[in-house]
Amino acid sequence: MRKLITVFALVMINVFFLACNGSNAAKKINKENLDKAVTRDADIKKGTASISFDTKMYDFGTVKEGEIVEKTFKITNSGKTDLVITNAQSTCGCTIPVWPKAPIKPGETGDVKVKFNTSGKPNRQRKSITLTTNTESGREVLTIQGSVTPKAKK
């Protein structure tokens, strides 16, 4: 019985060494993928992008119905990696945002321009513009508000 156990153990040891010796894992690594992973990991260690605003709220006061209110929000990339705004969406079609499509480098600034058409929007108004970004929260909200004096009824 001991002889049988010894033979079985020797066979298993040979199988183990032959299996490990037959494949060289280092040869299977794609150098290009490894370089991409190193670059990606370095970017991740920098942290997420961070955004700062001159203001997140704009009160346009009182305007007459039919006027177009315009506001340019100044944004600054206060992070250590490129800031990317992938979308800007308002709460209604009367408010049109225009945002920088190119990445904003750390320390650089950009403009988010907002136009609000007051036609058909009398009385108190409050419109939000949601920016989809690569910041930690993933979204930032800007707001414009004010009063619209209705047109005189004829």
From TrEMBL:
Q: Where are the transmembrane segments?
A: none
What is the residue range of the signal peptide feature?
Answer: 1-19
For this entry, the protein name equals DUF1573 domain-containing protein
User: Which InterPro entries would you find in this protein's record?
Assistant: DUF1573, Ig-like_fold
Keyword list (alphabetical) reads: Signal
Top-rank taxon of the source lineage equals Bacteria
- Return the PANTHER family for the record: LIPOPROTEIN-RELATED, SIGNAL PEPTIDE PROTEIN
